[in-house]
From TrEMBL:
GO terms assigned for molecular function: 3'-5' DNA helicase activity; ATP binding; ATP hydrolysis activity; DNA binding
UniProt keyword annotations, A-Z: ATP-binding, DNA-binding, Helicase, Hydrolase, Isomerase, Nucleotide-binding
Domain (UvrD-like helicase C-terminal) ranges: 316-613
Keyword DNA damage: no
Cellular-component GO terms for this entry: cytosol; DNA helicase complex
Top-rank taxon, per record: Bacteria
Protein name stated in the entry: DNA 3'-5' helicase
Pfam family, one: UvrD_C
Function (record text): Has both ATPase and helicase activities. Unwinds DNA duplexes with 3' to 5' polarity with respect to the bound strand and initiates unwinding most effectively when a single-stranded region is present. Involved in the post-incision events of nucleotide excision repair and methyl-directed mismatch repair.
Domain UvrD-like helicase ATP-binding: 35-315
Catalytic activity: ATP + H2O = ADP + phosphate + H(+); Couples ATP hydrolysis with the unwinding of duplex DNA by translocating in the 3'-5' direction
DNA sequence: TGTATCTAGTTTTTT
DNA sequence: ACTAGATACA
């Protein structure tokens, strides 16, 4: 346990006598890296002292400015690596920043312990001061799953019908309160009355329960630190002195708690540099306050405001289109991006009959760009991305790309560590490391099924509560008292014994890891090693094996099962990078991503939110229809504010593109199983005509874009919206295909040799792949599961899938069913 | 306890 | 259309 007394002992804070500022300034080395900066960047980098707000538009080199600034702080001797607090939102951003600082200085930066995400830094701080909020320093960090389970228990204990009052709603409320840095006693009465008049009370009960469990949720990490800083000026003062310079990335995304945390830390020296772009604030819905960036100058009078406006990413047309759209927002600080880049292609706009056609068109467009088209050089699929508003839009693309055999990768969706099997496995590891982790026990006690249902679990709960012990111990007592009979008792016995052996093995490994005769912190002498000499990796395999968890998925015939086994294998592999299970668990609590290196080139499909901070030479922006984008819900719930956030999202989308940006919309789209017609997005009208090339046939609604004067009368509406009035003739699909615009588009398309065979490697494989199947074969497909081959057409197979129905799929995406199960871990 | 059936709710997501 | 989660039934 680290109390405040250990403060000075920690290496991150170790302070040898520090040379005076002057002495260090004298020692400053030349700063060649400054020559790489443009004047604005240089200004932001060289203003080292006092508050600085760097307004950095998309693609203006803000990361470069930020990292150079850090390098400059170090190089001028203003601060040592461990005196700089540099906060980001994602681990990825933190990693990137570390790498780039090192590169700028041309040497590895050892020990920048305070460069990381808000949460990672707060964990470090909170472990030192846990006792100030009644926690022990080895508290666990709950993920949203645990959090929800806990809330459900409290809700049913309070006799609330969680059907009318869903736990998720309460979780959302509590999250929102924590984002605003409101502890249970600080929630305004009006707000606390939410959730059937019980919100405030349940929040309090939840916080109490967390303390009992020695646990925190993500919001607590910030909330606890803010309240510690507020209640203990001495603690705050230490850190104010220690963190001599503060840098914040993506400042527009900070919530109130993060803002307060920063303001407290910077209050004394005010050496704080915030980098952000109000035009890219797209996380209002999860508590981000654009207001934080808008009022920086008020909070820090005399702040230097630097605008980075020279863009190094996109062509002028793309920038102009983005600027045109974002100009529609009223509450902005105002920036105008410019570039020295060559003109390039206009932003392209195309309308489609429906969502499937949109996917088909984009698929073909991607293939022709990949081959090289209109004299353009061939492009890698890695250079292309499809950015959607909502993840359900991805399906159309996945379906289409699977059919034509276009490799794609979907970013987003459930992340690795959020998958069920990974969480289950982690719960097993948790119970092995800490037998008193009740939430972990609850998760695994009947997974896989052990015949321990609600009743048995209630008995365990009772036994544990009446003896005041953790659940696992309660289970042991229950068994001793013969309070459980039958199959369940035998299974529980096995589980309890296994947990004991695993824990012993963990302790044993700890012994190996430490000194021979080291004393364990809990004073327990390990039982004689029933699992001798196991590394933590081997132990993990043993745990998954003995628990029956691996077998559970091996016996599962669902299409996901092989993938889940694969993931478990991946998890065990990830363990190799750690010294022990404890370290791994700590790491995973905060790092939810697990990026595996990809070899094959693939088109990226992701949401607009996910794309922030990324860039691609070629970007497709489908689904620009009113209601979908801007999202109806956003507008209904947040009015103009919501619409402006959607508009910023559009701005983010367009500015991801370096060279080619294609916006599209469909007149009809299937949503929740219903066909819906919609109008092109209002954002389309905001695109400046001079920078847009319209591919849409004028017969299609929206084809009137850019020809307002000509087309207003009979042209235009009616295609998609029934609302536009019955007087309009409803265009047919044939009309569209006969329209001049469509023909022109077709003509353009045929300029490139469509018949040209696909990449030779792929076609060779295709032929080979297809020849290995015949009708009647049972096959397995990663997404669709098992099915029977009904016929063969070219390189595609007609397959009747057991779950997904009949599909045409390229042969190389399919394996023989008997091979699918072979590749099992362990 | 395990399975079959129904019912409601479907934006965006990091830590 | 689809899925997750809860309830009904074997």
């Amino acid at each position: 346990m680290r109390a405040m007394s250990s403060f000075d002992e920690n290496d991150a804070f170790e302070s040898a006598a520090r040379p005076s500022l002057a002495a260090r300034a004298m020692a400053a080395r030349p700063a060649p890296y400054l020559d790489d900066l443009n004047p604005a960047q240089r200004e932001a980098v060289e203003a080292l002292d006092g508050p600085v707000l760097m307004l950095a538009g998309a693609g203006t080199g803000k990361t470069k400015a930020l990292t150079t600034r850090i390098a400059h702080l170090l190089n001028t001797g203003r601060a040592r690596p461990n005196e700089i607090l540099a906060v980001t939102f994602t681990n990825k951003a933190a990693r990137e920043m570390k790498e780039r600082v090192a590169r700028t200085l041309g040497q590895s930066v050892e020990g920048m312990p305070w460069m990381g995400t808000f949460h990672a830094i707060c964990v470090k701080l909170l472990r030192r001061h846990a006792e100030l909020v009644d926690l022990k320093s080895n508290f666990t960090i709950l993920d949203t799953d645990d959090q929800l389970r806990l809330l459900k228990q409290l809700i049913s204990a309070a006799n609330i019908d969680d059907k009318r009052w869903p736990a998720r709603m309460l979780a959302g409320l509590i999250d929102g309160w924590k984002n605003r840095a409101w502890g249970p006693s600080q929630v305004p009465a009006g707000e606390a009355a939410a959730y059937n008049n019980m919100g405030g009370e349940l929040y309090e009960a939840y916080q109490r329960r967390l303390v009992e469990l020695n646990a925190v949720d993500f919001g607590d990490l910030l909330l606890h630190m803010v309240s510690i800083f507020q209640k203990h000026p001495d603690v705050l003062a230490q850190y104010q002195r220690w963190f001599r310079y503060i840098l914040v990335d993506e400042y527009q995304d900070t919530n109130v708690a993060q803002y307060l945390w920063l303001r407290l830390l910077a209050a004394d020296h005010k050496n704080i540099c915030c980098v952000g772009d109000d035009d890219q604030s797209i996380y209002g819905w999860r508590g981000a306050e654009v207001g934080n960036i808008l009022r920086f100058e008020k909070d820090f009078p005399g702040a230097k405001v630097v605008r980075l406006e020279q863009n190094y990413r996109s062509t002028p047309h793309i920038l102009a289109a983005a600027s045109g759209v974002i100009a529609g927002n009223r509450s902005r600080l105002g920036k105008e991006l410019w570039t020295e880049a060559q003109e390039g292609e206009k932003v392209r706009l195309i309308g489609h009959w429906d969502g499937e056609e949109e996917a088909r068109w984009i698929g073909e467009e991607i293939e022709s760009l990949q081959r090289g088209t209109r004299g353009l050089p061939p492009r890698s699929l890695d250079d292309m991305a499809i950015l959607v508003r909502a993840s359900h839009q991805m399906r159309a693309f996945e379906d289409r790309f699977l059919t034509i055999g276009l490799p794609y990768r979907v970013i987003g969706g459930p992340r690795f560590y959020e998958r069920m099997e990974i969480r289950d496995a982690m719960a097993y590891f948790r119970i092995a490391v800490s037998p008193d982790d009740d939430l972990a026990f609850e998760r695994i006690v009947n997974t896989p099924k052990r015949g321990l249902g609600d009743k048995a679990q209630q008995k365990i709960q009772m036994a544990a509560r009446s003896n005041g012990v953790p659940l696992l111990e309660g289970a042991r007592i229950l068994l001793e008292e013969k309070g459980l009979g039958g199959k369940g008792a035998a299974e529980l016995r096995k589980l309890v014994d296994a947990c004991a052996r695993w824990h012993a093995a963990v302790l044993n490994a700890q012994l190996d890891f430490l000194d021979e005769d080291a004393v364990l912190d809990d004073g327990l002498v390990p039982l004689q090693p029933p699992l001798p000499g196991l590394s933590h990796v081997e132990l993990a395999e043993v745990i998954l094996d003995e628990s029956g968890y691996t077998a559970h998925w091996q016996n599962d015939k669902s299409p996901e099962a092989p993938g889940r086994l694969e993931n478990l294998k991946e998890l065990v592999k990830a363990l190799e990078n750690f010294d022990n299970l404890q370290g791994f668990l700590e790491h995973v609590a905060l790092i939810m991503d697990n990026e595996q290196e990809e070899t094959e080139e693939k088109v990226t499909i992701m949401t607009l939110h996910g794309a922030k901070g990324l860039e691609f030479p070629v970007v497709f922006l489908p689904g620009w229809e009113d209601g979908l984008f801007p999202s109806q819900r956003s507008m209904d719930e947040n009015g103009l504010k919501g619409l402006e956030e959607e508009r910023r999202l559009a701005y983010v989308g367009i500015t991801r593109a370096e060279e080619l940006c294609t916006i599209s919309f469909a007149a009809n789209r299937r949503l929740y199983g219903q066909w819906q017609s919609s109008m092109p997005s209002r954002f389309i009208d905001e695109l400046p005509e001079d920078h847009v090339e319209v591919l849409t046939p004028p017969g299609l609604y929206g084809g009137g874009y850019g020809a307002a004067g000509l087309n207003t009368g009979s042209m235009g509406a009616g295609f998609g919206t029934g609302l536009a009035g019955g007087m309009e003739q409803r265009a047919t699909k044939a009309d569209v295909y006969n329209s001049p615009g469509w023909k022109r588009m077709q003509a353009r398309r045929s300029e490139r040799p469509l018949s040209q065979p696909r990449e030779s490697r792929a076609s060779a494989i295709d032929l080979e792949a297809v020849s290995s199947f015949t009708a009647g074969n049972r096959v397995f497909h990663q997404k669709f599961g098992y099915g029977i081959v009904m016929g063969i057409e070219g390189d595609k197979l007609d397959i009747a899938f057991e779950k997904a129905g009949a599909k045409k799929v390229v042969a190389r995406f399919v394996v023989a069913a008997d091979q699918a199960g072979d590749d099992v871990p362990f």
